[in-house]
Amino acid sequence: MDRRKFLNNLSVAAAASIASASTLSAKADALEEAMEASLDKRRAKPGHCFIDGRPERDPNDKRPYLQHNEPLLPKMGKAPTLMDFYKLRWSTNHVTQSARLAQKNGSSEKVIMACLLHDVGLNIMGTDHGYWAAQLVRPYVDPEVAWAIEKHQALRFFPDREAGYEYPERYIEYFGEDYVPEPYLKEEHDRAKNHKWYMSSREITINDIYAFDPDLQVDVEDFTDIIGRNFKQPKEGLGFDSSPTAHMWRSMIWPNNFL
Ligand SMILES: [Fe+2]
Ligand SMILES: [Fe+2]
Q1: Domain map of the chain by residue range?
Q2: Which of 5, 130, 165, 171 is the most exposed place for a label (fewest CB within 10 A)?
Q3: How far is the CA of 117 from the centre of ligand 2 (A)?
Q4: Which ligand approaches the C-alpha of residue 211 most closely?
Q5: 79 CA → ligand 1 middle, Å
Q6: How many angstroms separate the alpha carbon of residue 119 from the centre of ligand 2?
C-alpha cells in the first residue's frame, strides 16, 4: 500500500476519527480501521479458541481475504534472516537490553544469544512464550541455548537468592499478590534446578528484570558477530528451509493469512 496516497485519500470522517482519538493506541486502531476499509481485501484477523465461533465482521463484505503480504507490515525478502525478523517484525529493545546486560555481567556467548532470543515467542503467543521461543529456534542454535530459553518460562516465577534473583516486583503488579504459578511451572523449576545448564537459564531471568529501560536503545546490530557465531542461518531463509519450525517463521512473515 502507498501510505502517502492512502493518507491523501482518507475520507473526512476517517481523518476526524483518527484525529479525535485520545490515546496513541486508539489512533492506531482508528488508522487500521480506515486502512482496512480502503483495502480491496478482507483481513482474516486470525485467532484461536473463540468459544462462540470466530468473530466475523460484516456479512455483506464479499471482498476476497488478504493472503500473504500484509500492507501494515514491511515486506520481507525471499530468504529472511534472523536479523530481518528483528528489524521487520519484532520489538527488540527488551531482548537487546537483556543481552547487553549479560555481556556486561560476563556471561558466555550462548547465554547472550539466549537472552537475545528469550522473548521472541511473544511474537507468536504470550502463553508459555518461553516454550514457543525455544521450539522456534531449536533447529538453529546450540541445545543449551534452546534449553535455557525454554526453562526461563518457569524459572522467572521462582526466586533464587543465592544466584541473585528475587521474584520480580513487576509480576506483583501484573498478576496480583495472590498469584501462585501453576504446578507444572513449579515442577519444571524443580527439574531445571538440578540440571547442568540451570545457571544459563537463571542468567536469562537475572538479566531479564533489568532490561526494561525506556530511555535506553540497544541496537541489535551490536550483536551481529555473536548471532553469526551462534545462530545457524539457513541459506534458503527462515521459513523456507523445510525445518520442523519453518511454518512458525512463515506465520510471522505473513501473520494475517486466512488459511
Ligand atoms: Fe519471558
Ligand atoms: Fe523478557
Answers
A1: 3-38, 82-253
A2: 5
A3: 9
A4: 2
A5: 27
A6: 5
Q: Where are the alpha helices (DSSP H) in 9-71?
A: 12-20, 24-38
Looking at the whole model, is its pTM more than 0.85? yes
Residue type, 166: E
Ligand 2 center–CA 151 separation, angstroms = 12
Ligand 1 centroid, distance to 87 Cα (angstroms): 19
Q: How many angstroms is it from 209 CA to the middle of ligand 1?
A: 10
**Residue, of 85 and 29, whose pLDDT is higher:** 85
Q: Which CATH architecture has domain 82-253?
A: Orthogonal Bundle (1.10)
* Confidence category of residue 57, pLDDT binned at 50, 70, 90: confident
Nearest ligand to the CA of 206 is 2
The whole-angstrom separation of Cα 250 and Cα 242 is: 11
Confidence grade of residue 30 (pLDDT, cut at 50, 70, 90): confident
119-172 pLDDT, tens per residue?
Answer: 999 999 999 999 999 999 999 999 999 999 999 999 999 999 999 999 999 999
Residue 235's alpha-carbon distances to 58, 80, 113, 226, 239, in angstroms, are 43, 9, 20, 18, 11
Q: Is 46 left (phi over 0), alpha (psi -120 to 50) or beta?
A: beta
Neighbours of ion ligand 1 (CB under 5 A): 119
